[in-house]
Design brief:
Elements: H1 4-17, H2 27-41, H3 45-54, H4 56-66, H5 77-87, E1 97-102, H6 108-119, E2 126-132, H7 135-143, E3 145-147, H8 153-163, E4 181-184, E5 189-192, H9 194-197, E6 200-204, E7 218-223, H10 232-245, E8 246-254, H11 263-266, E9 268-271, E10 274-277
Parallel strand pairs: 1-2, 1-7, 2-6, 7-8
Antiparallel strand pairs: 3-5, 4-5, 8-10, 9-10
The structure holds S-adenosylmethionine.
């Protein structure tokens, strides 16, 4: 694996030749990604650095290669069940709802939420804002078409979250998939219905800048499975940033394995799967 010295040379070279700063990425997984990039492009370390210095398009490409874009429709179903039954009902009486998906990847997280907002009858008054460092995934999110055979579990997740009610086993909602997406077996695709694609504002944004690119206050921020790639210092700084971007009593939703240490110090109260701004 790449030595710490080479890792630092890589980070400094990127910093000197672009606006990206990977200094606060978690070292191990980051070094593994660079190893993979060198292998995929057939470059040794000296050649990699030479390319970074001479070609800004190459930098853009490797930033995309560094990011891990794994995602899923209703990823961690128990979190989405809680979003549906414990979180969203609290916003029902709001005149308007603003939600930020920070690190939205290819959009499955956005569509999961929009399906639930529609089920609860609050989709029309909700504005979705979504950002990612990688423009390619934003484009895929906008298109909203996913391979079917790789993602057959999306249907099971839908059943768990949209049809079943884990808080009341007597309730089963026989909602057809076609209400939200078309299953096109011939072309091996799941195609999101057009009404779900409306009213989403996308922006390319690097969370390392610790800024609110949309410049509004949010009722919910989803930042799931993104912070695991950062060191604890940057994670904590971002918890403060998100706190500043939320309305009072706004929600922060993290990945199933992510949490905030000493959340009260930053200004959050933990509430099951979520953090609420004090
Ligand atoms: C593993 S995906 C998580 C997607 C989705 N939130 C989920 O939980 O399924 C992580 C996403 O974070 C994005 N990301 C990584 N570093 C970032 C940064 N510095 N700023 C913004 N997005 C970043 C990646 O491009 C990727 O799309």
């Amino acid at each position: 694996m790449l030595s710490t010295k080479d890792l630092n040379i890589f980070i400094e070279t990127i910093k000197d030749n672009s606006s990206y700063d990977f200094s606060d990425y978690s070292e191990k997984s980051f070094a593994r990604r660079i190893d993979k990039i060198m292998k995929d492009y057939g470059l040794n370390f000296t050649q990699l650095i030479r390319n970074i210095k001479s070609n800004s398009n190459f930098i853009e490409q490797i930033v995309k290669d560094i990011t891990v874009n794994t995602t899923e429709l209703f990823r961690d179903t128990e979190v989405w069940q809680a979003v549906k039954y414990r979180l969203l009902p609290k916003l029902k009486n709001n005149e308007q709802i603003n939600i930020w998906h920070a690190g939205c990847s290819t959009g499955q997280e956005i569509y999961s939420l929009k399906i639930l907002l529609n089920e609860l009858g609050i989709l029309e008054k909700t504005n979705i804002y979504a950002s990612d460092i990688n423009e390619d995934v934003i484009e895929k999110s906008n298109i909203g078409i996913y391979p079917l055979s790789f993602n057959i579990e999306y249907l099971e997740n839908f059943d768990q979250v949209v049809r079943k009610n884990p808080y009341n086993f007597d309730q089963y909602l026989d909602i057809p998939y076609s209400k939200y997406f078309k299953i096109d077996k011939e072309n091996d695709s799941i195609i999101m219905n057009n009404f779900l694609k409306k009213n989403i504002t996308y922006k390319k944004h690097d969370l390392v800048t610790k800024t609110n690119i949309f410049d509004i206050q949010f009722d919910i921020i989803f930042c799931r499975n993104v912070l695991i790639y950062f060191n604890t210092k940057l994670q904590r700084e971002l918890f403060y940033t998100f706190n500043g971007c939320l309305h009072r009593k706004g929600f922060l939703v993290l990945g199933a394995s992510e949490s905030i240490v000493n959340e009260k110090e930053i200004g959050y109260v933990r509430h099951g799967n979520f953090y609420i701004k004090k």
